[in-house]
Amino acid sequence: MSSSVRPTTIALATVGALATGFLAISRVSLADVPCGAAYAVYFDHKRRTDPEFRKALKRESRRIAKAAREEAEAQGAQHKQAIRQAVTEAQEEGFPSSVEAKEAYFMNEVGRGEALCQDESEHVEAALCFYKALKVYPQPGDLITIYDKTVPKPVLDILADMVAFDGSVPVGNSFATGSDAGGSTGAVDD
């Protein structure tokens, strides 16, 4: 008699060990596996052959997309309202008038803004700090060029919304041109 193990015995032992390990890890019973596979086959067959089922799936997909779009619009409106409220509160607080007070205020607000930029949940507050610093800076257009190079884009976008809402900050077209703020004059060289 030979003491070798047949390949089919090895294959069965391997499949058994894998199935036992898989079931122990995922806590799925043997009865659930065929049911899941049967449902997948049924769903695929229904999707391919039943026009009403396809229409229902499309309607559901459109309904979900519409709900997501409405939610995004609502969040956008809420975000704009938070920006407006922050700018209004900053304007009500007022800004310093003496040169020394403006300088100290500017340095304080820029420092706070840089610290708040690190936390994504504080982007509106960080943009508000940069906005306050911009309001007391003697040449806001130059400061915006610096912001464009140093401030993260999400904060810069919020700051642009704040400046657009305020309208009293003389920034020229720095935000409109984005990264071209210090760039070309628009003339074509031959």
Give the topology:
Elements: H1 7-26, H2 32-49, H3 51-93, H4 99-116, H5 123-136, H6 140-150, H7 153-166, H8 174-177
Helix pairs in contact: 2-3, 3-5, 3-7, 4-5, 5-6, 5-7
Describe the structure using short key phrases.
single chain; 190 residues; mainly alpha; elongated
Architecture overview:
- The chain is 75% helix and 0% strand.
- It is an all-alpha fold.
- Roughly what percent helix? over 70%
Q: Quote the average pLDDT.
A: 77
Largest sheet: none
Number of strands: 0
Tell me the distance between the termini: 95 Å
The coarse overall form would be: elongated
**Strand residue percentage:** under 5%
The Cα radius of gyration reads 31 Å
Sketch the topology as an H/E string, one letter per element. Answer: HHHHHHHH
Oligomer: single chain
Q: Regions with pLDDT < 50 over 5+ consecutive residues?
A: 174-190
Give the helix/strand class: mainly alpha
In short:
With 190 residues, the protein is an all-alpha fold.
